[in-house]
Design goal:
Strand content of chain A: 5-15%
Largest sheet of chain B: 7 strands, mixed
Strand order of the largest sheet of chain A: 10-11-9-12-16-8-17
Number of strands of chain A: 17
Oligomer: heterodimer
Shape of chain A: globular
Largest sheet of chain A: 7 strands, parallel
């Protein structure tokens, strides 16, 4: 039964046939998810006894791929990108050690990026993720790369085209001033790069296969391949699942869509896809565009129109103000402004979980978080936040490290200065010093040459001195009475932790250590205390999950795991901490969420939108590899192909357009009011748009510019 | 033949069949099969090694520098109380006996022997998570904050100061504290710093042979610097983590070195000079404070006889003379002012301070040069010269830098600084070796670039 509360355009979409692909298009807040839910309900009636595939985000298709592969008998271990990057790093080891036979004659390792191995590995991994998302196999990658390289070298485009020159920054003009010989040289470097990358890609696949470890995108690729070779298996899935619903389909990769096609056929009959952005529908698809805004106030919608450049100033009189646009001088001032506004929203009756601060990225949201906590507003970050790198999580990890290894002096210094022990700088320095009368020397033969395998001015005694002083108490006499009391307490607690480390269940042990060695932030029940609890719960949950997923994992493995995660660019956390918190949320994680009031902060080029910087390796099916860095006997830092490609494909423009859509998406998270803020003087908006200035200039009805 | 090393003992330790135990037994078996030294630190740390926890951790730490850990144990490298020493020796002995035994048995019997040798006995795993219905409490109990210790002055430890120490202090006082007042965490050499070390070494050798660059010697200079660079990099090979990095950084250095020769030859035409010192010790006492350092190169101008102080830079540096001079004025860089005063104290007439960028093999070498003048500061300013590589610096500015060096040295050696604050600029934390120790570092810059 279809709800009577649907709008006419929603109802049309809900009632459309399941025989064809159905595209539901509309901006955030137009009720696409509602349409999908109603269509799913209709499908249950239309296909009694059968199941529907319902994905609230395309990433869920990956979980489905795992399920199907396992049903088909595969024994698989699901890993995420952080773990996959570790596997990939292992796959790169023979390359970095120059152990490949090809380096003897066929290949020159001097290819773009490889001079800095860690960056090369990271860039390659990012490339392979994209290739896998697009279902490009290693063979296909190599073949297209070689043909793309040959084509560019054989028939280079006009590199003196005035349009190309004028669109290229002056500092990169030298990359276009190339002789045929230089182009040939760049061609050879490109070919070697493609061969190296293709081989790495193959090797990574082989290692993942051996380990039975797949990421979600790997699972999708494998299932697509399996179903293409098994029409009966695909038909069985179609029989079991006659319909599928995919929300937020803008995020669907070619691999996701290919899997749907493998099951539902090339015209995706039976599949309903919801898009916020214009999409290219399959032939025969029924497209329903939802235009009526159901969530955001008119003022926000008019502002979105202005930023989308689709704005025709309406004769709208008396639009209720719901948008505020403010630019201040410094980031601190902006964070204060956001804090004050959020405080006012809460004081006016909004529950904390109905208020959000939306940022392009929450990886470095501390200024905003601090401003909210200072106003006793419980807050938690959500999205691309790295819980392992959070200051509070690091304090907690430090204690676990202290129990395991007192000679990790960096963690020990962190703990001894933390508020639970609160030693002064003078005491820390004293504890690091040689005791005047050590009970035992550090090394048995102090006159022996320093045990070091490489030349260094570092005295290896320093590796142990602080740890022994703390554990053995050899500098206690040099401390003040209060420092000594504090240190003795730490020593006593630590001795208990060492005993408990291998005797207690892991969770109980961690709780014990934190309970004794980690000080509460703020007063009990305060926003700071609540936020600290939320971070620690997240951390503990992740550590426990790691242990549960690997019964062979040791305590040292846990510490190493946390360190790896803290350093990874792929970490994220979508957990909302269970309510009661104002959320600081990244714009991508905010998709599908709605709040009463939203502050979209840091709206300035370099933050939102970010400056576009092309990755080290670009790939296009037609042009093949497009390496950025020009290596070897080069004079220009960039390759000619890269500079040309950037211009021809208008890569930056496309990137900026996507950022614009994300900004609109952020505004439309609000049901009642939006604050848009920025700090610092505006740029001219030439290389990245100035959304806030666009609003300031347009002054749409209902927007107050302060 | 398969057999047993030890008779079953009656009083074996009852040990849980835990992940730690399985990891230990697996590790011993792996080591018996491969003899790989890198297995041993994890083994000695294990609660099943028989070695006291902290002693195991100390030896594992030592292993980063000592080479084969069992050898270090044999030599009693760490001074330990007798029971601890005995435990460590027993650990080593057990491992060796197992290894000697291992080639006669397959893995499973060997595992059993490991358990016997280390007196392990399987039992219930007390570390296993409880599956009882009682869930862990939602709230994580935490301690109350302690009363902070009353601050007092950090006792001075340094007997001398260097320009880099003062630069570090100017960049971040907390960094200085960790590096010089605590010195408990090593700032390990990176590939970039190793590149710099090797390049400096190569040029030191090169100018030993070619103090007066000359076009006549071009071929010899080019050949020799190639050899110098190769030799210097080979000596520093350990500083590069990967072989490919070593090979490609070496190629980069070779190209840069050839550009350096290009520059020498051009310089010889325009302003000939003679290298009169390489790695010259710079020792200077200012107001009772000892300053020490080494000057990469000292030149004498062939025409004027003036002395030039030269510093090689293989990392990012100021791109103009004005930018560098501004850093001196802001008391962010003391290196060249210190060298100036050190050489002046030695009786040299220093007329030129130069930074030679040797980072980018793509670019021509374009030194940043400051001519030392007696002109008032204002006359050497001006937008007209903002981007130029050559500029001037007044003696008065160098005097201000010297005054500030004395002030800082006085401050740091006074024992009155109670708290070393973190930098406000998060850039200072990017490659900081003490970032883990530093709980109050500034919030990092947001990521400004998207792909």
């Amino acid at each position: 039964m279809i709800s009577l509360e649907l709008t006419a355009e929603q109802r049309d979409a809900v009632e459309s046939t399941f025989e064809r692909c159905c595209i539901v298009a509309g901006a955030a807040g137009t009720g696409k998810t509602r349409v999908l839910a109603e269509r799913a309900a209709r499908a249950r009636s239309a296909f009694p006894g059968r199941e529907a595939l319902a994905f609230s985000a395309p990433s869920e298709i990956e979980r489905f791929a795992f399920d199907v592969l396992r049903e088909r008998g595969a024994v698989l271990n699901s890993i995420d990108d952080v773990e996959a990057s570790v596997l990939f790093t292992a796959a790169c080891a023979p390359l970095l050690a120059l152990e490949w036979d090809e380096f003897a004659d066929e290949l020159d390792p001097e290819v773009p990026g490889l001079r800095s191995p860690q960056r090369f590995v990271e860039s390659s991994f990012r490339l392979f993720r994209k290739l896998r998302d697009a279902l490009v196999t290693p063979d296909e990658f190599l073949s297209r790369s070689l043909s793309g390289a040959a084509e560019f070298a054989a028939k280079p485009p006009n590199l003196t085209d005035p349009a190309l020159l004028s669109a290229t920054k002056h500092e990169y003009h030298d990359s276009l001033d190339v002789s045929p010989q230089e182009l040939q040289r760049q061609y050879r470097r490109e070919v070697d790069l493609a061969k190296i990358l293709a081989r790495l890609y193959e090797r990574y696949d082989a290692m993942a296969e051996t380990a039975g470890s797949l990421t979600g995108r790997d699972a999708v690729a494998r299932l697509v391949s399996a179903l293409r070779n098994d029409p009966a298996g695909a038909a069985a899935l179609r029989e079991r699942y006659p319909v599928a619903f995919v929300d937020a389909a803008d995020d669907a990769t070619p691999g996701h869509l290919a899997l749907l096609r493998a099951i539902f056929g090339s015209d995706l009959a039976g599949v309903t896809l919801a898009y916020a952005l214009p999409a290219s529908p399959p032939a025969n698809a029924a497209v329903f565009t939802l235009r009526r805004q159901l969530r955001s106030p008119l003022a926000v919608e008019l502002a979105c129109g202005a930023v989308a450049k689709a704005y025709v100033r309406p004769q709208a009189a008396g639009v209720e103000p719901a948008m505020r646009v403010v630019r201040v001088r410094t980031q601190h001032e902006e964070a204060e402004l956001v804090g004050d506004r959020v405080r006012a929203w809460l004081d006016a009756g909004s529950p904390p979980e109905r208020v959000a601060v939306v940022l392009r990225s929450v990886r470095h949201a501390e200024p905003y978080e601090e401003a909210l906590l200072a106003r006793d507003i419980p807050t938690i970050a959500r999205g691309d936040v790295n819980v392992f790198a959070d200051r509070r999580a690091l304090d907690a990890m430090a204690l676990l490290w202290n129990a395991y290894d007192p000679f990790r002096h960096d963690w020990l210094l962190r703990t001894l200065a933390n508020p639970a022990f609160a030693l002064s700088d003078a005491s820390l320095s004293t504890l690091c010093a040689e005791p005047p009368h050590p009970q035992t020397p550090l090394f048995l033969l102090d006159d022996e040459p320093a045990p070091t395998v490489r030349s260094s001015r570092w005295d290896p005694k320093r590796d142990l001195r602080l740890g022994w002083n703390v554990v053995r108490g050899e500098q206690d006499e040099a401390l003040t009475a209060e420092a000594r009391t504090s240190l003795e307490r730490f020593r006593r607690l630590r001795a208990g932790w060492v005993d408990a480390m291998y005797a207690m269940p892991f969770e109980a042990f961690v709780r014990t250590v934190w309970g004794e060695g980690l000080a509460r932030e703020g007063a009990p029940g305060s926003a700071r205390a609540l936020a600290q609890q939320a971070v620690l719960r997240r951390l503990l949950a992740r550590l426990l999950d790691f242990r549960r997923r690997g019964p062979e994992r040791t305590f040292a493995d846990v510490l190493e795991y946390a360190g790896r995660r803290a350093a990874s660019e792929f970490e994220s956390c979508e957990d909302d901490a269970g309510g009661g918190f104002v959320q600081i949320v990244s714009v991508e994680a905010a998709r599908g969420l709605e709040f009463d009031e939203v502050a979209v902060a840091g709206v300035r080029p370099g933050l939102f939108p970010r400056w576009y910087v092309p990755d080290t390796f670009l790939y296009s099916p037609r042009a093949g590899m497009i390496p950025k860095e020009n290596v070897g006997d080069a004079r220009a830092s960039r390759t000619a192909k890269f500079t040309y490609y950037m211009h021809r494909n208008k890569t930056r423009e496309r990137y900026n357009e996507r950022e614009r859509q994300l900004f609109l998406d952020a505004l439309r998270r609000a049901r009642r009011a939006v604050l848009v803020s920025a700090w610092g003087p505006p740029t001219r908006g030439l290389t990245a748009p100035e959304f806030l200035e666009e609003l300031r200039v347009a002054k749409p009805p209902g927007t107050v510019v302060e | 033949m398969q057999g047993r090393l030890w008779d079953p003992a009656e009083d074996w330790l009852v040990t849980a069949d835990s992940p730690e135990m399985r990891a230990f037994v697996d590790g011993v078996v792996r080591w018996c099969r491969t003899g790989a030294d890198e297995e041993i630190p994890a083994l000695i740390r294990s609660p099943h090694s028989g070695v006291p926890h902290d002693v195991g951790a100390a030896y594992a730490t030592l292993a980063n520098r000592s080479g084969p850990l069992l050898d270090a144990i044999d030599r009693g490298r760490l001074a330990l109380p007798a029971p601890d020493r005995d435990a460590v020796l027993l650990f080593a002995e057990r491992l060796r006996r197992l290894r000697a035994f291992s080639d006669r048995v397959k893995d499973e019997p060997l595992r059993a022997e490991v358990e016997r040798a280390f007196e392990l006995r399987r039992g219930a795993d007390s570390t296993a998570e409880s599956h009882a219905s009682e869930a862990a409490p939602e709230t994580i109990g935490l301690a109350d904050p302690a009363e902070p210790e009353a601050p007092r002055g950090v006792p001075p430890r340094q007997r001398h100061f260097s320009a880099s120490a003062l630069n570090a202090y100017a960049e971040c006082a907390r960094k200085w504290f960790y590096r010089y007042a605590c010195a408990a965490v090593e700032d390990r050499a990176s590939a970039a710093s190793t590149y710099g070390t090797a390049f400096h070494l190569a040029l030191e050798d090169f100018h030993g042979e070619f103090p007066r660059p000359s076009a006549r010697d071009e071929a010899a200079m080019r050949a020799r610097i190639r050899e110098n660079v190769r030799w210097a990099f080979e000596r520093n090979r350990d500083g590069f983590e990967a072989r490919v990095e070593f090979e490609l950084q070496l190629r980069r250095a070779q190209r840069t070195a050839q550009r350096y020769v290009d520059w020498l030859l051009a310089q010889e035409r325009d302003a000939p000079f003679e290298v009169i010192g390489r790695e010259v010790p710079a020792n200077l006492e200012l107001d009772g404070h000892a300053f020490v350092g080494f000057i990469d190169r000292l030149d004498r101008d062939a025409r004027s006889g003036g002395i030039g102080v030269v510093d090689y830079k293989t990392g990012s540096i100021a791109t103009s003379a004005q930018e560098y001079r501004d850093a001196v004025r802001r008391f962010e860089d003391f290196q060249l002012p210190f060298y100036y005063w050190a050489r002046t104290a030695e009786g040299d007439r220093v007329t030129r301070l130069a930074l030679i960028p040797l980072k980018d093999a793509l670019l021509d070498v374009r030194p940043i040069v400051l001519e030392v003048t007696n002109l008032p500061v204002e006359q050497s300013n001006g937008n007209r010269r903002r981007n130029e590589a050559r500029g001037t610096i007044g003696v008065s500015e160098l005097e201000r830098a010297r005054t500030r060096m004395i002030e800082l040295a006085g401050e740091l050696s006074s024992g009155t600084v109670e708290r070393f604050e973190v930098a406000r600029d998060p850039d200072a934390c990017t490659f900081c070796a003490y970032a883990t120790a530093c709980a109050h570092k500034p919030a990092p810059e947001p990521e400004r670039f998207g792909r």
